[in-house]
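sanity check this:
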Amino acid sequence: MIVSVEQFRQETGSAAPAPVVERALQYAQERVEEVTGRLFDLAERTETLSTVTTEFGGLLAVFPHGYPVRSVVDPIGLAPSTDGSAVVGALAKDEPLTYLAGYDTETNRPPIELFDIIVELAERRLNPADTTAVPAGTTSVQNDGQGFSGDELGGRSAMPTHIRRALRKWRHWDKRDPR
């Protein structure tokens, strides 16, 4: 996990038992990874990926699932892109790629926005009653001649609209999957 129980407690003041917080943080991170198509835990991974030509100065690049790419172990001669979203260089079709990518809770911490998103989703998981009573997906509410409308009135959702929007910067579907 890229957010520790201790970090979560510092941010939220939660006194929930550690195993409960761990499950909520794991759930939150899995949801973020599902939406972005990325894996954020710091780990060495081996993948076989399609090679595509990209905007990286016309260089060939592959877009592994781990993010951000920190180094390439094998094959030699490939390197992470400057933003960590890709590995650039010549890679033979169906050649395995071994690389180190991701964040941890100490030395390679996630950007504050990603950290905050995971904390918010975990907090929503632990305290669903703290969210509004307006049903998810509601776009307008009216009562006694007064009404409100908009796309973010609230509602309990596992992945609220404002979080989905914020996560767009970590998605690379268009580059990674050129179908």
Observations:
- The longest strand covers residues 43-48.
- The chain has two domains: 1-42+102-169, 46-101.
- The chain has five helices and nine strands.
